[in-house]
């Protein structure tokens, strides 16, 4: 149906879960989440360093609830609440506030990018646009 990379919507449950887990814990820890529940002290608690994609409307954060201990999940919910109250989207390349330039969202990883950071002038007119990071895997 699609060539790789796949838009987020069409990714497997496993891929979606892994992507969301990596927003809250390290890559290594996300990979072993199935083996051992994530504990409170392992969760990234700084809302500004958690990717805004966790608040994307395509994301169902409850997908990953099963991988956290009850205490750890409370922490995740607090971080989410902070992010929803004060949504700050940053560019996936320069990490600065998205509002400073025109930007485009990746349909694969759900990160957003400034057009100048991508070295393009216009928003790509495609049903699904994939960022350079997604295109390189
Ligand atoms: Zn940028
Ligand atoms: Zn991407």
From TrEMBL:
Q: Which residue ranges does the record assign to the PHD-type domain?
A: 88-137
**GO MF term list:** zinc ion binding
Note whether Zinc occurs among the keywords: yes
Identify the Pfam families for this entry.
PHD
InterPro entries, A to Z: Zinc_finger_PHD-type_CS (IPR019786), Znf_FYVE_PHD (IPR011011), Znf_PHD (IPR001965), Znf_PHD-finger (IPR019787), Znf_RING/FYVE/PHD (IPR013083)
Give the keywords, sorted: Metal-binding, Zinc, Zinc-finger
Q: Specify the protein name.
A: PHD-type domain-containing protein
Q: Which organism is it from?
A: Oedothorax gibbosus
């Amino acid at each position: 149906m699609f060539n790789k990379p796949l838009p987020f919507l069409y990714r497997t449950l496993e891929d979606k879960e892994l992507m969301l887990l990596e927003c809250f814990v390290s890559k290594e820890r996300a990979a072993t989440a199935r083996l051992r529940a994530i504990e409170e002290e392992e969760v990234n608690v700084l809302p500004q360093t958690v990717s805004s994609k966790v608040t994307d409307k395509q994301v169902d954060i409850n997908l990953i609830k099963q991988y956290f201990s009850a205490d750890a999940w409370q922490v995740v919910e607090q971080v989410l609440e902070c992010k929803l109250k004060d949504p700050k989207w940053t560019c996936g390349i320069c990490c600065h506030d998205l509002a400073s330039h025109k930007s485009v969202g990746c349909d694969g990883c759900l990160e957003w990018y400034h057009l100048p950071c991508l070295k393009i002038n216009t928003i790509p007119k495609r049903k699904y646009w994939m960022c350079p990071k997604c295109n390189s895997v």
